[in-house]
Amino acid sequence: MKRNSFVSLLALASAFLIIPPAVAQMDSATAGDEPVITDPMAQARDAMARGDPAEALSRYLRVLARDPGDLDALSGAGSAALAVGDADAAINFFVRAEKISPRDGRVKAGLGSALVQKEQPRAALRLFDNATDLGVPPVDVALDRGLAYDLRGETRKAQAEYNLLLRARPDAEATRRLALSLAMSGDKVGALATLDPLLQKRDIAAWRARAFVLAMTGDTAGAESAAYAVLPRYQADALRPFLSRLPTLKAAEKAAAVHFGHFPEDKVPMEMAQVSPVPASKGMPVAAAPQPSPSYSSAPATRPRFDSSGRLVMKPDAAAPTTSTASAEPSPARQAAEQKAADERSLAEDRRAAQRKAAAEKAAAEKKAKAQEEAKARKSNPERYWVQIASGAYKPDLDKEWDKQKKAHGKLLAGKTPWTTPFKATNRLLIGPFPSKGAAQDYVNDARAAGLSSFPVTTSAGQKVERVD
User: Fold this and answer.
1) Which one of 146, 199, 262, 386 is separated from 299 by 20 to 30 angstroms, measured CA to CA?
2) Does residue 36 surpass a pLDDT of 50?
3) Which 3 state secondary structure label does DSSP give 434?
4) DSSP alpha helices (H): ranges in 29-184?
């Protein structure tokens, strides 16, 4: 389901702008009937501190509706949009802020974080470098800088960034990302040890990360068990086909898979990246953060461009839409219905893919078993050389035919053993096997001279020949 993320945010803001009279009265007076001066910026910062970025975004948009050039509101709106999972809207806010203050390190850092969410690590790393050059402490960009390095497959650099942050302060998200990065580089023991303190605290996001750690390091069975332990069954069912693929990926591909749900062909279910409704701002891993839309588009992301001063250049159609387009935005109820329908289609696709894979695996197993059975048959019944002396449509009567032939040609058949193999609608009565085709032909020549009608027969490898009792 494609939609303009920025328009969605404006629609969200308009909903908050419709304030019931009772709420307006509460804003204008306290219990003591003293007037209160409400500050949307203070309310926005308070909402972010409480872990409610959606509320914060609505407050920042209220300020921007009054003053579109408010730098603090633009920066705050960018951070809030990023926290609710809308990287496109965040980029729009940060680009507008950068035009106002091109040497603001915090804006550069915000743009870098947004580009990480757009899986553009090279451009993001450049912006993080710009941010630290402009005075932003490296520890403040370490979390997303580490993820950018992981997306490039540079796991050692990524782990150094996560450790830089963790030395400064405890951070559950950095701990989870560090564990995932260690698993990407093959360090299963280190990854599990890193997660252990969070697992002891029953951190659900850490348990999800543990499933990815096990999968990336080759323990598919353990990963599946972990997934079923923390996910709804239908999500775990959809996830199973992809857990076994994780260890086959390169480090950068593993990062894209576990953090954003993207495999190289970009056809994996959104459950990989959307397994929790809790925003990333509350300490959940990126792999658990909600995404704006569960699309399956394989179109390549547009690479960012920078001007001579290092500012991010947006395409003309990427500019913020005018408020006149907001009226065309579907209602929240319709958006929810469309989102649900898209999720159901995605889940159905994942289930069909799992069924196709199971059918293919079953067919491959049956083919392998058949090949093994044929090989065994060929080994027990190699190519052999015989002489046919009679035939009969009714197999149980071949012993009588053998007695008849032996009575008539006792000297020729002395010491010979009767065998049979099916041929079309009848059954051959054979003697042998002979050591070679020539030996069988020599016997036929002698038998014919003695009055026994016969001819040579060669049975192919695997052709069953049974003894006549």
Assistant:
1) 146
2) no
3) strand
4) 40-49, 53-66, 71-83, 87-100, 105-117, 121-133, 138-151, 155-168, 172-184
